[in-house]
Fold this protein.
Amino acid sequence: MKKTIDVCLSPDLVHLYDFDGKVAVVVDVLRATSCMTTALAHGVEGIVPVETLEECEQLGKEGYLTAAERNGEKLEGFNFGNSPFSYMDETLKRKSIAVTTTNGTRAIHLAKVRADEVVIGSFLNLKAVSNYVQNIDKDVIVVCAGWKGRVNLEDSMFAGALVAELQSTYSLELDASKIALSLYEAGKHDKLAFLSDCNHIKRLQKLNIQKDIEFCLEENVYNVVPILEGNRLILG
Ligand code: MLT
């Protein structure tokens, strides 16, 4: 029987999905899962995604490096914000980082308590994630981080990109998978142009953030798959 790939377009819809025995691919293209993928690709040993600033601060006291972002901005008192370029530093090799972001870390926790496995997806590691989920032979649910519960274009588009990768051997049960696929097919030839009017790109541009956007939309830059082991993301 064919495996299925479903798409949950917002974390606030996870209660409608049956995650038993399935792998959740969590995506927050701009920028949490792009950062996590970049960090592990550059030798960071582990990332602990936490939902609150207090948890992040506490891990900092326990010796972790810390990253905190809210509404696109780095917070004072933490080592990093949420730019992928912050995680390319050679000095971070073999370090562990506690991370909290506006939407991405919440989506990871919602998936963690439901799915058999949690995998981190981004355009940067699209092919690697596609190959990984096909090898573990489980039904897939893409969990889009969105923005404060609302659906966004960029995460939905990634979901469509993964559906496009898997559609020849997986069945698309729900309309959300078809919506995501149509979105990706419509914009894949120039994602930056297609997404130029999306809410979070405009939000980030108001913060003078542009190069992160262009980088996070690149496909297959890293052949790595972050997976959740306990409370830590490590290389799968
Ligand atoms: C998020 O968690 O929604 C994003 O990562 C926010 C951002 O980094 O711009």
Remarks:
- The mean pLDDT is 97.
- Residues 28, 30-32, 69, 72, 82, 101-104, 145, 204 surround D-malate (CB under 6 Å).
